[in-house]
Fold this sequence. Notes:
By secondary structure, the protein is an all-alpha fold. It contains 6 helices and no strands. The chain has one domain.
Amino acid sequence: MSDFLADWYLWTKALHVVSVISWMAGLFYLPRLFVYHVEVVESGTSTDDLFQAMERRLLRAIMNPAMVATWVFGLALVFTPGIVVWSEIWPWAKAIAVLGMTWFHHWLGLRRKDFMSGRNVLTGRQYRMMNEVPTLLMLVIVFSVIVKF
Length: 149
């Protein structure tokens, strides 16, 4: 198995990067949709239905598959011999940040369900603040991998 992973390393890394880009796009866009949903859209209207459909499709058709692919290709990279040195700090920092990103993804899914049931209690300002979470986690991940601090 390790020979297979080593032979396919560059393809795996490329697919991981593409998956991460897709996932991040959704993690940036969905909270922004929530901001507009809270601030502009009245509950129970056709525009509310439109926003709920956009949010559902973004989460289910783009973000969920991208997150799964990110994890699959990321784990393949982890198990590729010679790629990760677990005695260093950077893989642990990245792992914690990726877990945080996954938590945020699921938190967004729960907020989408709040909109569906008419129980959203967060404001546009709160969604704007939460929209910074993936940026901070992304910085930890990128600096961990590139700088290897």
